[in-house]
Amino acid sequence: MSLPALPRPHREDVLIAVSGLAGGLLLWSLGLDNSTGVRPLTDSWISLVPLVVMAGMELLRRTRPQTALTVGTLALVLELLTPGNLVTLLMFTDLVYAAVVYGTPEAARRLPYSTALVTIAATIGLLAWYREPHALLVGLVIGLVSFGPATTGVLVRNHREAAEAARLRAEQTALLAEMDRTQAVTAERARMARELHDLVANHLSAIAIHSTAALSLDRPETTRQALTVIRENSVAGLSEMRRLIGLLRDSGGEGEPVAAPTLDAVDALIAQARTNGEASGLRFSLYDERDGEGALPAPVGLAAYRIVQESLTNALKHAGAGQVTVYLAGAPGDALTVRVDSPFGQRPGPRAPGSGAGLVGMRERVALLGGEFEAGPVEGPADGETKVWRVRALLPMEKDKEPSA
To answer: Which residues contact 112 (CB under 8 A, 6 or more apart)?
Structure first.
């Protein structure tokens, strides 16, 4: 079985190894060593063995830091038996530093304590053996060679980990901000879709119904009446579209955006519905039983206006001949009730197609205000058998109530 291949050394590690080996060979060629006292192995060439081994371990300082330190420690022991080389000691200190910086978290925590214990134990042992002050200097050198690089590695590793944690937090913050932005854009698109539908559906439905009537009935008076209604709805729809465009423009642009419609303009909706529904046999009436003179909160007033507008549009599109009733009730600080009853069932003659987006939009508007919404057929109030299509919305009217995006 073949042995696993060693990882390719980093380019900087190769540079350190080559530089260390070259420096050590230069000192050896000049006859410079760091021996103090008698060494068991006196041949100067033997000091090249730990030098070469230490340089080889520098190639593994980043990819195999624990292995490099273990073999480097054995090479250092051999170094103490030879005349020695200063570069070998310097490369060992780098291996200790690399073991802390690039090693496992456990090794990074353990090495500073281990090297501190070794330094203290060696200093005490040398003092007990030699009983001379220079033993303290030897202990200081041991600390510089082992404990110093280990503590330096801890500082560098902690700094790198803190920087990485800060980078991850920044990425997470950016991701959360992007998610918030996406949600805000989605909510704004939904709001724009509701506004656009409410603005044009009523007018386009009337245009579609009356244009179909004008094409299907070959009577000049009917055609003229239909074209009049078509023109009125075209002009009104264009005005509403301009208002919406004004709202979407930057406030620094030319002109001021037109204020959003409120429930006070519901009379105009009823009047327009009477004109549009006259040919279909629809009659419209308004019962406003609200108490108090206080103004409605802006979100509530706009939502109620759009619900009445969409309900009247649906009646023009789908309801048969009969009575359409708009009922408003409520008091400041309580809740506003909006109810629209229209004849239920198929009607003869031209009718505009529907997509169901209107009901979805009304339900969303009520949900944003924390209210209640229901729509569907119910028994009529007259005989209990004739059914009507009822749209009912209950909108809270707290002054501080804001739409929950």
So the answer is: 100, 147, 150, 151, 154
Question: What pLDDT does residue 138 have?
Answer: 76
Supply angle C-alpha 22, 98, 153, rounded to 5: 125
Bridge partners (DSSP) listed for residue 390:
341, 376
Element (H, E) at 26: helix 11-29
CATH number of the domain to which 379 belongs = 3.30.565.10
Mark whether 277 and 388 lie in a shared domain: yes
- Domain check: are 142 and 285 in the same one? no
Model pTM?
0.49
| Of 102-106, 270-274, 369-373, minimum mean pLDDT range | 270-274
Instruction: Enumerate long-range contacts of 108-114, CB under 8 Å, 24 or more apart.
Output: 108/153, 108/154, 108/157, 111/150, 111/153, 112/147, 112/150, 112/151, 112/154, 114/150
Poorest-pLDDT segment among 82-96, 128-142, 206-220, 310-324: 206-220
